[in-house]
Amino acid sequence: MHLGTPDHPLRVAIIGSGPSGFYAADHLLRQTDLTVEIDMYDRLPTPYGLVRGGVAPDHQKIKSVTKVYEKIASHPGFRFFGHVTFGQDVTRDDLALHYHALIYAVGAQTDRRMDIPGEDLPGSHAATEFVGWYNAHPDYRDLRFDLSQESAAVVGLGNVAMDVVRILAHSPEELATTDIADHALEALRHSRVRRIYVLGRRGPAQAAFTNPEIKELGELAEANVIVAPEELELDPLSQAYLDSGEDKSAIKNVEILREYARRGATGKPRQIILRFLVSPVEILGRDRVEAVKVVHNELVMDERGGLRPRPTDRTEIIPIGLIFRSVGYYGLALPGVPFNPKTGTIPNDKGRVLTEPKGQPSLGDYVVGWIKRGPSGIIGTNKPDSIETVEMLLEDLRAGRLLSPPQPSRAAVEALLRARGVEVVTFPDWQILDAIETQRGAAQGRPRVKFSRVDEMLAAIRAHKAESQPDPAGD
Ligand code: NAP
To answer: How far is the CA of 364 from the centre of ligand 1 (A)?
Structure first.
């Protein structure tokens, strides 16, 4: 019996519906010599992971990548099982009864901490929480951010930090043309934040943001970018790094920053103050955040030739009322699946899950995206990453090294979920929500007005289905 034929389709469950999951599905469905059935699970009723819940609302163009994912979802071999939580509604053992392979595509679902005193004071938040909140992610719907503060700080020089800074710096009119969550739009309308410090622990030549993102800060309608020229003076090691010419992005970043230093303030109402070579060492305040204490750093070469920050004896206190740490995402363990807490990833070899780092392959388990390689790269980075994993899966298929599920059928999985009382959201169900959101948006000149609560999403789907049922009385 050959697996991957119309009589015996290769059955794959993908856990997570962000970019890495969709690129894995795409590569499987492109195998013209194979019949493949894919069920993609997500704990939310909505697909697309960070494209919906992470990408900033003022970056609409990036979100158009969902058109590609819609096309993948329209393949007859693809089904979406939204509102199904892995490890709760279905376990790894349950899925092993129905699929030949499982691909984990759950991303990095929490944030890294700075581990400094005062980090848990009211007014100190993870950037990832703010991002989830302004993007209408149901998990963050009821968070509150005290935007009555005049000064805020964002720690980290990555693109997430840039997103957070822009959202704090935009005018309400600019935000009102986006798909930002309604609750966030309303709160930001009353924001009194006027000064936003961005705190980088290394220098301008080591910043993690990319050229378009730092350039965009200089184009904001309502905010000046302030950089002190002396903070852009490079130490000999950074200068030598730039002079080597190998990092074009860093060279351009420094060029853009020098232009900001020359330009100075231009009379806009908000100030974005970029600071380099400073690390927060304590968040100060009695009952809430009142200031951040930073230590000034110098750069030294580490064993691997990289430049790392080393604290000097110089400290500084910056008065602020709100602080967002944007120092990276971090993966969470899935029940019944190997996990390496040191890296926040699932141990793997080119996407084949290993029982432990450098351990044996775990039969039938594969991993893609941020939970495979850590939280780095842009959306497109996930395509080659997912292809690599699927190639390993296909190699194992040819070698007969996949699971042998006793009930390999589409109907059996549906029956299991029904028996568990799970209200599954299918792809056509999601399209109902999508249509409602975009219609509500069109009425306000916005791309969409998002649902932000799971119960409201489920109620809207039920209501739509009830309306479109033929009336039994024939009225
Ligand atoms: P990131 O690019 O890894 O940046 C993390 C930043 O935090 C770095 O500046 C890092 O400094 C700093 N940091 C780490 N630990 C720190 C500590 N203890 N104290 C002070 N600073 C610390 O991560 P990210 O911004 O979360 O973004 C994740 C990925 O998503 C990135 O690949 C990013 O490009 C991508 N993304 C892309 C876009 C876009 O394309 N527009 C938007 C958002 C996110 P060091 O360099 O010194 O470690």
So the answer is: 33
